[in-house]
C-alpha cells in the first residue's frame, strides 16, 4: 500500500516528500499544537530526518506508514497520517494553528477515512486526549465513535 494524492472539496492531500519540511516546519511551529500530544515544534532539519524515516517505512511485513501533507489553495496547512496493519489503520492529523477553526481537520480526516476504506481498510482507530474537545469533534466528524477504552491516557475511537 502506498500513499497517493487525493482530494476533498477544498483540500488536496499530497504524499509526503522530504522537500516539504521547510514549509511544514513553519506550519508546525506553534508550541500550542503540542499541548495534548507532547513534544515541541520541530526544526527543518529534524523534520527532514523524520520525513526520511517515515518514507523508509517500518520495515515490518504487512505494516505501512502512509503520510500526506494537507494543501489548501497552494499552501501547506497540516498533515494526516495512517499506520496500516492488515485491515486496520491508526490515524492522526495536525492542522497548523493559523488554519484552525475552518473545518480543514474534519475535512482532511474524513477524506483520509474515505481513502483508507477505498483501499481495503476495514477498521479505523484514533487516540484522543480526554481534554482535547476539538480533536474529539474531528474524530466524530470522520465517522469514529469513542469507546470507554483508555490507552496511554487517551480514549480509543474506532469505526
Write the layout of secondary structure elements.
Blueprint: E1 6-7, E2 11-15, H1 21-27, H2 44-56, E3 63-72, E4 75-85, E5 88-95, H3 104-118, E6 123-128, H4 133-141, E7 145-151, E8 154-158
Helix pairs in contact: 1-2, 3-4
Question: Any overview of this molecule?
Answer:
This protein is an alpha+beta fold and 159 residues long. It is 28% helix and 34% strand. The protein has four helices and eight strands. It has helices at residues 21-27, 44-56, 104-118, 133-141, and strands at 6-7, 11-15, 63-72, 75-85, 88-95, 123-128, 145-151, 154-158. Strands 1-2-3-4-5-6-8-7 form an eight-stranded mixed β-sheet, sandwiched between helices. Strand 5, helix 3 (104-118) and strand 6 form a beta-alpha-beta unit. The two termini are 20 Å apart.
Biggest sheet record: 8 strands, mixed
Q: List unreliable stretches of 5+ residues.
A: none
Structural class: alpha+beta
Number of helices: 4
Order of helices and strands: EEHHEEEHEHEE
Approximate helicity band:
25-40%
Query: Mind telling me the C-alpha Rg?
Result: 15 Å
Shape: globular
Number of E-state strands: 8
Assembly state: single chain
The strand order across the widest sheet is 1-2-3-4-5-6-8-7
> Termini distance?
20 Å
- The whole-number mean of residue pLDDT values reads 97
Q: In percent terms, what proportion of residues is strand?
A: 25-35%
Amino acid at each position: 500500500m502506498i500513499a497517493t494524492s487525493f482530494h476533498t472539496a477544498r483540500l488536496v492531500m499530497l504524499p509526503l516528500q522530504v522537500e516539504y519540511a521547510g514549509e511544514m516546519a513553519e506550519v508546525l511551529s506553534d508550541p500550542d499544537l503540542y499541548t495534548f500530544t507532547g513534544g515541541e515544534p520541530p526544526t527543518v532539519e529534524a523534520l527532514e530526518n523524520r520525513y526520511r524515516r517515515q518514507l523508509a517505512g517500518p520495515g515490518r511485513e504487512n505494516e505501512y506508514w502512509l503520510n500526506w501533507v494537507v494543501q489548501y489553495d497552494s499552501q501547506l496547512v497540516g498533515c494526516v497520517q495512517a499506520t496500516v496493519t492488515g485491515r486496520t489503520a491508526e490515524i492522526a492529523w495536525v492542522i497548523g494553528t493559523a488554519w484552525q477553526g475552518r473545518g480543514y481537520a474534519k475535512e482532511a480526516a474524513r477524506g483520509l477515512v474515505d481513502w483508507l476504506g477505498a483501499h481495503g481498510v476495514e477498521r479505523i482507530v484514533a487516540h484522543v486526549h480526554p481534554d482535547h474537545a476539538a480533536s474529539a469533534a474531528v474524530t466524530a466528524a470522520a465517522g469514529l465513535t469513542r469507546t470507554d477504552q483508555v490507552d496511554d491516557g487517551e480514549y480509543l475511537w474506532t469505526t
